Amino acid sequence: MGNSARIDNSAYNAASHDRLRITLTAELPGPPPGHELLSAFHFGRHAVEAGTPGIVSTGIDPVKEDDLYECWWYDGPVEHRQTGNAHIAECGDFAVIVMQVADAEPGDFRAVTCELYAELLAAVSRTGHPNIVRFWNYFSNINLGEGDAEKYRQFSIGRAEAFEACGITDEVVPAATGIGSARDSDFTVIALASKHDFHNVENPRQVSAYHYPRDYGPRSPKFSRAGCVSVNDQQLLLISGTAAIIGHESMHAGNVELQCEEMLNNLRELSEALAEVGQIEADAILDARSTVRVYIRDPSDVEYVKARVEEFLGGRSDTVAYLHADICRRELQIEIDAAKFAGPV
Ligand code: 3EB
Predict the structure, then answer these.
(1) Are 341 and 20 in contact (CB under 8 A)?
(2) What tens digit of pLDDT does each residue of 268-277 get?
(3) Does residue 62 have its Cβ closer than 6 Å to ligand 1?
(4) Which residue's C-alpha comes closest to atom 14 of ligand 1?
(5) Which string of b and e fits 90-121 if b means at least 16 CB within 10 Å?
(6) Substitution candidate for ligand 1 out of 142, 266, 328, 330 with most atoms within 8 A of CB
(7) Which of 116, 209, 211, 273 has the fewest CB atoms in 10 Å of its CB?
(8) Ligand 1 mutation pick, 143, 151, 153, 177, max ligand atoms within 8 A of CB
């Protein structure tokens, strides 16, 4: 699949009245008519063009392509500003807050994470969008360090401490992704907040991450498995990073084929649960029009994983990004997350 096919097929294929459109392209496109850029997630090594606010380089590279831009376009004005380390994009229904700081050693990562999250949460509270609906966390060397000294576990402690200080309880935790960049990069956290209510959803097949037993670290990872934001008669459906975990246990250590199957089983179950709170059929949550990020530890697995994911989505898709990344448990080979903005049926 060439880059031009991506642009032709995926750029502006949503219904024209959608408040939010999400596109995936090899180059940064211009806005669809009437829309402004809320956020552009850049995957790849090229330096992003200065002067366009709202672009964030995630530090994660695509498996096969040089660069990919997942753009979130809002059907209305978007205001961009910066306070301290926080870059804020705010519109009528959402705010996106981007924090990017220098990477740190595993031994310092708990404090760096807690500090970053404290500043981020303070920035959110100064927007008109108090409900945090999703976080994306990207940082290097996620599996560096043994046992509780591992960078991911230290991250989880720092995040839990910052949430605790701000009164973010397990009942209201947002959806999230926590993924390792395969190369050295900044520590990047992106938050999506809204003035609309967020309904979080758990996966009946999995123990809630915030209830993981002590074996996985001193503080549990604070995130929900999925969630839904209703924007008038439309809704944003969010699927958190999903891997081959049943209960709280990683399945099929190191086996990408079997992990792929368990991951897709988890997505199926999660879609059913999400359909119960969203005004949408379970089958319509994850299809070839959904925006999907597939994180692959070993890039040579991409062809196999791509075939399975496209089969699952019901056809070839130009809105799936295959990314080279480390998963937060070292025995896991793949993880997937997704978003879908859907109008009334
Ligand atoms: C898991 O299910 C896999 O720490 O924010 C998925 C999504 C995972 C989010 C996070 C971690 C996070 O436990 C890992």
Answers:
(1) yes
(2) 999 999 999 9
(3) no
(4) 328
(5) bbebbbbbbbbbebbebeebbebbbbbbebbb
(6) 328
(7) 211
(8) 177
Q: Is 303 a catalytic residue?
A: no
243 lines ligand 1 (CB under 6 A): yes
Instruction: Copy the structure tokens of residue 173.
Output: 């935790």
Kindly state if the Cβ of 176 falls inside 6 Å of ligand 1.
yes
Cα(111)–Cα(157) distance, rounded to whole angstroms?
A: 9
Question: What are the tens digits of pLDDT across the range 281-331?
Answer: 999 999 999 999 999 999 999 999 999 999 999 999 999 999 999 999 999
CB atoms closer than 10 angstroms to residue 10: 21
C-beta of 221 in contact with ligand 1 (< 6 A): yes
154 lines ligand 1 (CB under 6 A): no
If we measure between CA atoms, which residue out of 55, 34, 79 comes closest to residue 25?
55
Helices marked H in the chain — which ranges?
Answer: 3-10, 106-125, 151-166, 256-277, 282-285, 302-313
Of ligand 1's listed atoms, the one at least distance from the Cα of 137 is 5
State pLDDT tens for residues 102-154: 999 999 999 999 999 999 999 999 999 999 999 999 999 999 999 999 999 99
Contact of 224 with 135, CB cutoff 8 Å: no
State the pairing for strand pair 291-296/320-326.
Answer: parallel
